[in-house]
Amino acid sequence: MSSALKSDDVRYECPVDAVLRLLMGPWTTYILYVLRTQGPRRFGELKREVGGISAKVLTERLRMLEEARLVHRDYQATIPPQVTYSLAPRGAELNPMLDALKDIALRWQSEDAQTSRPRQAAE
Amino acid sequence: MSSALKSDDVRYECPVDAVLRLLMGPWTTYILYVLRTQGPRRFGELKREVGGISAKVLTERLRMLEEARLVHRDYQATIPPQVTYSLAPRGAELNPMLDALKDIALRWQSEDAQTSRPRQAAE
DNA sequence: TAAAGTAGGTACTTAAAAGTAACCACGATG
DNA sequence: CATCGTGGTTACTTTTAAGTACCTACTTTA
Known about the structure:
Chain A is mainly alpha-helical. Chain A contains 6 helices and 3 strands; from the N terminus they run ααβααββαα. Chain A is about 55% helix and about 10% strand. In chain A, a hairpin with a 5-residue loop joins β2 and β3.
C-alpha cells in the first residue's frame, strides 16, 4: 500500500477490504477459477493453465491464498516432489459471491457493448 | 499490470477481473461505502470522511468510478463550484454482492480471531 | 489585506508490485 | 554426459501506483 499505512490504519479494520485485497492481484482470480472449474492441480499444471504467469508470482499467490486458507497445499516428498493445490473450504465459500459478481460483470459487459461500441453494428 | 500485457491479453476477456479491478484500489471500497451509507456527498466532505486520502487519489478514484458508471457526478458551475457525487444505479447493483462479501469477511475475521490469536483470552 | 474554502490539476518523488533470468537438488531419459 | 522436468528460490530490473507538495481562480470571512 503506502508508506503512510501504519498497522493501526483505519482501513485495516474493514474486513471487506481485507478479502478484496486477497483477490486483487492480476492473476489471483484466474488461479481460483482454474481450481474451481478444473479441480486440484499440480504446480506445473497450474502454471501452464494460467498461461503467462511466472513461477515467482504463482508461488507468491499460492502462498498468500494458502495463508488465507483459500487453497490447500499437499506436499509429497517424492522425487521429483509432487505438490498439489486444491480449493479449501474457505475458497468454496466464495463461490456464491463470485457467481453473483460474474452475473453482474457479464450484464455490464453486454450493456456496454451496445452503448459504447456502435461501430460494429452501425453503418 | 505488466509489460507483457497487450490489449488482446487473455485476462481482459474476464469480466469478473474487470469489475474487481474497479474495486481494487486502497480507497475505492471506502468511497463507495460512504456514498452507500451516508448518501450523496460533495468532494470536500468525501475527502474528510474517507480520512487520509489525498485529493489526487480521490479524484482518480471518482473519475474511474464515474467512467464505470458506478457513481454519478453532478457539477454546478456556481462560485465556488459545487460538485456532488452520488451512487449511480450500477453502484447500487453491487450492494447484494458487497453485503455477501461482508458477511463472509466478518465470519472469517471472527474465526481467525479465535484460532490465530490465543494470547488475548488464554493464560 | 491575508487566509480559508471550493474542486480539483500538475510535477516530482518514492515505494511496492510485477517481470526476467539464473540457479538449486534430484532422478530419469536420450 | 548433457538435458528435461519437478517445485520452487534468489537476485536484479522495470513498471506502476501512490504519496507529497504546490498551483489555479474565485469568493467569503477575519
